[in-house]
Design a protein that fits this description.
single chain; mainly alpha; 2 domains
Length: 113
């Protein structure tokens, strides 16, 4: 914690009551250790992990209305730029081929990769 945060923490503390610190992290791994090291506090994960996979405080799975598909790309021995250019070229080629095979009204004019 920096000097500013320490001062705010000191000024907001009343007896045994310390202010809550809300933080976010890209990884949840070892968050308790991180919070203990940074703020000398116990940590609580919010929202807590759900009991059912696919459902959380922020989202619920809806199989009747599919959403996005995420794809990873791994190209050992090639540069990231080469892999990205080849993957995008393939996607654009397929999009263009599909566009030519469909009637104009079926094509979204705002399509993108």
């Amino acid at each position: 914690m920096g000097l500013y945060e320490s001062a705010v923490d000191f000024l907001c503390t009343r007896g045994d009551h310390r202010p809550k610190i809300v933080a976010s992290t890209a990884t949840i791994r070892r968050y308790q250790d991180q919070i203990r090291s940074l703020f000398d506090r116990e940590a609580r994960q919010f929202p807590p992990p759900g009991l059912i996979a696919g459902e959380s405080f922020f989202a619920a799975e809806n199989r009747s209305r599919p959403g996005r598909v995420y794809v990873g790309l791994c190209a050992p021995g090639k540069s990231m730029k080469t892999a990205a250019v080849r993957a995008l070229a393939s996607i654009l080629h397929t999009c263009e081929r599909e566009r030519r095979e469909r009637p104009p009204e079926a094509v979204d004019p705002y399509w993108t990769v």
